């Protein structure tokens, strides 16, 4: 009898520990293999996609593949289309379907991204992807803009209002400043590839959550592989953290050359550098001096890369 209170206190303490650890349900009578459930769900989604009617664009793509040709997107063509609410171009209203940002959604994104052999196919697969809830409120899928193959690739965080309306990345005030930054070192916007880690505008211009970024990451990673740039520039801390895996703040991270090697062999890594986002520079114009230093470093690295490619 004397140890009854201590047992009760111990039980309460144990339950409190479980609650703090995130355990909110009782144990089931039988073990549950969630790995098998995830694999089964992925297989179910694959079967559903295989059973979907083939669209005319898919039929054309299949015919081109059979003849060994690949479709390409126009560098100057805006990556816009009809509203993307439910992934169907003819729909004028967003879908009410809510996606669960889980491992299944990430696995589905990876599978779709790997299946794309061209940027046009990647854009089409992204348009049909329903695993990210940001798509519900966004007006357009904001895909990359610029040449299919470019020496330089800029990657931002997420579209803003202007980009969401136009369906093209970096067209607002930030984009205009980026254009002037490029011109300052002798580059033209139409000669570089510009994209974001997240292709849909978050509501209210909020920052994408880590889960949303993780779900969208396979698509921008595949875009990097297809464009095959000589240099990657991550604009802002969220982009640098997602693409380069850095945990530092942007002021510590900027100006440091790193290597991008996702799904690439060690011998084919891509030089990458983080820079201050143009939107940050608009809010903090005094920091443009740091941006100018980074632009000069980028210009010098591009010259080195061009010299190596020409054998000089």
TrEMBL record:
Q: Does the keyword Iron-sulfur apply?
A: yes
Q: Which reaction does it catalyse?
A: Hydrolyzes single-stranded DNA or mismatched double-stranded DNA and polynucleotides, releasing free uracil
Record's InterPro entries? UDG_Type-4/5, Ura-DNA_glyco_family4, Uracil-DNA_glycosylase-like, Uracil-DNA_glycosylase-like_sf
Residue spans of biased composition, Polar residues class: 67-77
- Record's keyword terms, sorted: 4Fe-4S, DNA damage, DNA repair, Hydrolase, Iron, Iron-sulfur, Metal-binding
- Hey, which family's this protein in? Belongs to the uracil-DNA glycosylase (UDG) superfamily. Type 4 (UDGa) family.
This chain belongs to the protein called Type-4 uracil-DNA glycosylase
Lineage, broadest ranks: Bacteria, Pseudomonadati, Pseudomonadota, Alphaproteobacteria, Hyphomicrobiales
